[in-house]
Amino acid sequence: MTSTAPPGTTTSPAPAAPRDAAVVAGTATLAMAAAGIGANSIVLGITGSGVPGTAGRVADGQALLGLAITAFLAVAVLDIVLAWAVWRFFGSAHRELPALAAWLRVSYAAVLATAVGHLATALDIATGPAPDDAAAHAALAQFGVTWQLGLVVFAAHLGVLGVLVLRDRATPSLIGGVLVVAGFAYAADGVARLFVPDDAVLLTVLTGVLVASSVLGEVALGIWFLVRGGRSR
């Protein structure tokens, strides 16, 4: 039997049940944090401080670099999963911002996947028949530049996500504020690295701010998603 609404009334879709999206978002956030930190540490260890010996370092660390590539690709996939979860969790109450946050996260995932391609190129050069220090180092440097530009897109995502959290009555506003700070720090750091020497004090300060605010903001939001997200909406 089909039910009908009383005359003169309109039906609205059933409210979303965001608990499942919160669990997915929290799990993806914490998994990405672990995988990203580990992968970045491996790449930094292999890159070294100069061109000479780059191919040898990459070849010697072949297994580790392969693990880092896999971890970065996993992060890119989880970025897309998180974009969906954020859109689903906030979408019923906030129409435009969740979609914008999701698309920015997907865009960052695409840039990250492109950057990882340069790591694969460096590995191919170093383990090929004619290893070349300069070419391997250039590929690693291209990874860094591409990823750094991607972090500007990521900064925009964090800023939008922070505003979204601040506007959402069920989500702690403190986390939203920290995410907005992290977004500004990532954007400033990404732009500054294009023009400021790597050993500049400004970069040291910006890096400290972005690491602290990003870790605190994202990890705190991930934990909140897992523990409280969707329970009181």
From TrEMBL:
Signal found in the keyword field: no
One Pfam family matching this protein: DUF4386
Transmembrane segments: 21-43, 63-90, 102-125, 145-166, 173-195, 201-227
Keywords assigned: Membrane, Transmembrane, Transmembrane helix
Family matches, as InterPro entries: DUF4386
Protein name per UniProt: DUF4386 domain-containing protein
